[in-house]
Amino acid sequence: MASADRAGWIEAALAVVVAATLNWFGNGLNPVWPLMWSAMLPVLWFALRGSQWATAVAAVASTLLGGLSMWHYLHSVLGAPAVVWIAAYGLGAVVMAAAVLLFRALVRRGRVWSALVAVPAMWVTCEYVRNLVTPHGSAGSFAYTQLRFLPFLQLASATGPWGMTFFLLLFQSAVAIGIFLWGTERRLALRVVGVGVGAVVAVLVFGAVRLAAPQGKTIRVGLISSDERAFATVADEGAPMEQLFRAYAAEAEKLAAQGAQAIVMPEKLGVVIEPEMSAMDGVLQATADKTGVAIVAGVVRVAKPLKYNEARVYVPHVQVASYDKEHMLPPFESDLEPGTSLTMLPRERGAIGVAICKDMDFARPARSYGEAGAGVLLVPAWDFFVDDAWHGHIAVMRGVEDGFSVVRSAKGGFLTVSDWRGRIVAEARSNSAPFATLIADVPAEHHATVYQRRGDWFAWVSVGLLVFVLLRVWL
After folding, report:
1. Pairing of strands 405-411, 414-418
2. CB burial readout 85-115, b (16+ within 10 A) else e
């Protein structure tokens, strides 16, 4: 008996090591996307062999150990206290353990079809609730590990990130059930695996068809950013701010000479205190008037007692418009007033909208721009270097979900142009030159999507499935 227990705990330890390793490299800041297709499989496999207690420990341990890949970023880069990481990943570990135990109970009671959806339904429900109640939106969803898997990414146009997470875990659940049943009920095992694999194949066929769609009308966009010491922080009001605007204006003229029709500069270039805003606006408005190019630049506008993280929009011979960031990054932006409205460029410029950095971690305002028919979204941003690919590319999914191209210019990150199918059209690092610039032709037509029209319907399907399988266990 003792040797059997020892063997079980050895199997649990091996499952934890393999699952944690796959999660560490398959998730996090630089995910290797194929690894996430088997990241939970070792724990699901062990759950059908080991004891209930060992299964819970294995699920918790693998989730926590895999999540340590984000410790440095959250604690050292963002300055979040240790309790934030513990709370976030501790809760995730508990939910994952509950999901795996539910999966185990259903399989052992012969409810294999309910078991097939148990883990994906519970985890998607967790991701959706976290998206609603935390200030970080959908960031951290398993779906973002698959941004480079373009055929699979197209599913976001129908379900948002929720469907991607669901099918990612459904596949692993099907394989685990198939392995468990292979020796005793081979025909049922084949049916379960066939459903799991078949569902993923159907998703990939849909993705391949969508990727083959014609590109449509394009516009030429330019991006500018600088991580030079003098330009990488927030410039002070007055002369430093004017000097910075003039330096960016000179780069904008160069991109205009190359045919750029819209130019995006980063978030929070500097501080402007009213009533000096009109004087600062004059610098880039004059450039827009001279070149015929629309320009979007980020500033911190102070209109005492309020402060705004704002994108200023300069269209040739048109009154300056602005967009106020809706979603703030705590605690760095807790003193800023959030915006509540969309900003679209004049219609003759095309269907072009404006958002700022962290706004793209959330379904809205991106979905609202999709509903407004936007074909391109211009996004000033500011990243933390180490998260340049992870956070910078989250915005790519918003374009797939809502049918528009994304033009994102960040300090401390990437200048990125992506189309409505999530393809990276062009990209450059913001520290690649004293003034990093990028110019690209990007699709500018809006492509309506199911997600844009129906929103988080698939998340609610997952909630319903979770309720159903919980009732199956209870009954």
Report:
1. antiparallel
2. beebbeebbebbbbbbbbbbbbbeeeebebb
What is the residue extent of each domain of the chain? 2-212+458-474, 218-446
Give the length of the chain. Answer: 475
Report the alpha-carbon distance of residue 373 to residue 377 in Å, rounded.
Answer: 11
* Interacting residues of 321 by C-beta distance below 8 A, sequence separation 6+: 312, 313, 315, 343, 345
The answer to whether 283 and 245 have CB atoms below 8 angstroms apart is yes
Count of Cβ atoms closer than 10 Å to residue 199 Cβ: 16
Digit-coded pLDDT (tens) for 375-399 = 999 999 999 999 999 999 999 999 9
| Identity of residue 139 | A
CA 323 to centroid of chain Cα atoms? 21
pLDDT band at 103; cut points 50, 70, 90: very high
pLDDT digits (tens, 9 = 90+) for 192-242: 999 999 999 999 999 999 999 998 899 999 999 999 876 678 999 989 999
Superfamily of domain 218-446: Carbon-nitrogen hydrolase (3.60.110.10)
